[in-house]
Amino acid sequence: MSKKGYNPPKKKMSKAAFREHCYGLAFVAPPFIGFLVFMAFPIVFAFVASLTTWNGMNNMMDHFCGLENYIKLFTDEKFWKVLGHTIIYMIGIPIGMFLGIFIAMGMNRKIKGIKVLRTMYYVPVISSLVAVAILWAFVFNYDNGLINVIIKALTGKQGPNWLGNEAWVKVSMIIFMTWKGLGTSIILYLSGLQSIPRDYYEAARIDGASGWKLFKNITWPLVSPVTFYLLITGMIGGFQVFVEVLVMLPTGGKNYSAATVVFYLYDKFAANKYGYASAMAFLLAIIIFIITAINFKGQDKWVKTID
Amino acid sequence: MKKRFVSAAIVAAMLATSLTACGGSSDGTESGAKKDGKDTVSIYVYGNDQEQAMYQELFDKFEEENNCTVDAQFSIKDDYGTTITGMMTAKNLPDVFYMGPENVKSYVDNGYVLDMKPILESEGLDTSDILSSTLSAYEYEDGQYGLPHDSSVFAYAFNKDLFDEAGLDYPDPANPYTYDEFVEVCKALTKDTDGDGEVDQWGCAFWPNLMIQPWLYSNGTSFLTDDYKTVNVTDPAFIEAMDKMVALTTELGVTPTVEQEAGTGVYQRWIDGTIGFYACGTWDIAAFMDPEVVNFNWDLCAYPTLSTGETYAWCGTVGYCVSANTKNDVLATKLAYYMSASDESMKLQSGIEGGNSVLIPNLVSMSDNEFAQAIADGTLKYPDNYEVLFNYLNNANGYNSRFNDETFTPNAEWLNVFFEGIDTVRDGSKTTEEYCNEIQPEMQQLLDEAYEDQ
Lengths: 307, 454
What we know:
Strand content of chain A: under 5%
Radius of gyration of chain A: 26 Å
CATH class of the largest domain in chain A: Mainly Alpha
Structural class of chain A: mainly alpha
Distance between the termini of chain B: 61 Å
CATH class of the largest domain in chain B: Alpha Beta
Shape of chain B: globular
Oligomer: heterodimer
CATH topology of the largest domain in chain A: MetI-like fold
Number of domains of chain A: 2
CATH superfamily of the largest domain in chain A: MetI-like
Largest sheet of chain B: 6 strands, mixed
């Protein structure tokens, strides 16, 4: 035995195994190449761009500025302002969850026409975001919008300036985003509810548990994986809100009061500040990563499974 | 075996589709290459359906006259700038494309566009009849880097029917109103027509982003100093002009309020016939002359004058330029010239032929003669005071026009921030002075950055 230890003889791959190996690689290749071309390359490219003052026309590598864009971002008041708006919009996530589970529990019964009802709630999810945003801009119209017309008919008073007032515009966006995402919450909660074994409830009822206790101790813990999923996807999506603002308030609203991080990023792109916009995109990705990591870390404390 | 063949075919197809997504010319024709043995010149422009049909007709004629192929791509205005920047990054520019005066310096400095002057001279393509103020917008360091597609101006219009109802004389284009006269007329036009206690007809209306400039220019001021390097919004003349404009909304109440504007926009209110004075660009004429769009009588007039006593409007242009990397520089320059200054192109696009006007001719002699004649004999539908447009464009008869400041800066980000918060002044939350003092440093910083980054 040599010092290096025992070296087993290399097995020569049979022709058939080799062919199979090649087929395997060929099948893996398209998504892998797709990932390299459409994900890995743009990520690396964006990171390099974020270290420059590239404007799309000049030579990117001649305008290397190190971490200057990142340092500038930390002192950019507007960035923090739009980050604040983005976080405010996330108030819609718990509201959507609450409404979602509430409506899902209502739908988790044998009612006539329940399928029609479920479909209706899901329609906003499958509708074009641009189309429904335009529609909601009409709904929020100060003069003739559906909401203000109803308010005027009921109270005789003029309703708020939903999209023109710096505070109300945030309420409007939260209402719209909650409405748009509600269908997804309902469907997911519904599937969560249907997977809870009936025996649990029966056993608890025999022990004399009230409706609230059933919800608190059985339903809520056992749909917590759904809640966790909605929280994670909601927060990731929440940090990326853009189209809603662009369609309903193309200039970002009065005093930029409706603008989000991605909207600001887009404005910087439009001003040909590709380097700065890339830095913002990267910082946003880091923020999303950290928030998601914290959520995953904390899930053990509250996410329960049936097993 | 068959199974293997099918698997291999699927894999090949998947690979092919994933790789073809990586781009390349749609028809494999490279810029300047030959197609069917003919020279090919590519052009990328934007326009609505009507304009695109006109351009295609002109490209067909150009192909015939020059025995070549024009590879034309069209888009809409909103997407254009981003696409061109993308094409620059990919080093895949068409031979001929649009360039605004604001891009001349950066496109030239970065080597994207060709100086057309030597080719224009060697080919005998005369530019002396092109409106000089517009042509000069494409000159840079003794070179001619673009030829105008159009020369437009944002003039002023009034609703004749509202004047008739109020028993007022129409504005005299030869004697623009002073500010005080304008205010009096606006007051007379502002009414509660249905008696519900709320005003529903106004003397005038503003879309500040596009309509503040005539007030500033007439007060001898602007957003930037003359070298376009310093933000000038704290200049007393600037604040005075803006104050006068804002007062029409806040103190005098002769415009819709900011809240009312949020409900129904001012453009729509003008179209609905509830606004006395509103701006009218040369590009608006066709729509405003269409009774299905505007079903009241209207005409053009001058903007009121402030301290200089002169009426001002802003003008604009976009031009054709030729890629520095074109393989057919002569043919590409000829195409740019053909679109910009040939009789055929100008007659068709101005409506002298065909009756559909999408622009005013770039050629001065044509504007003064055939175009004016077509309006006079009714071939072209224009308002009676159409000369207001020419007066502004030619800086004639006491009228003035100028390019806005952002035309000469690398980007307009510094200006956009000004308009983001302007409604806080127009709704009375802040005074003009407070706002201008507050926003000036941010504007200056963005302007400085724009110059640094170019």
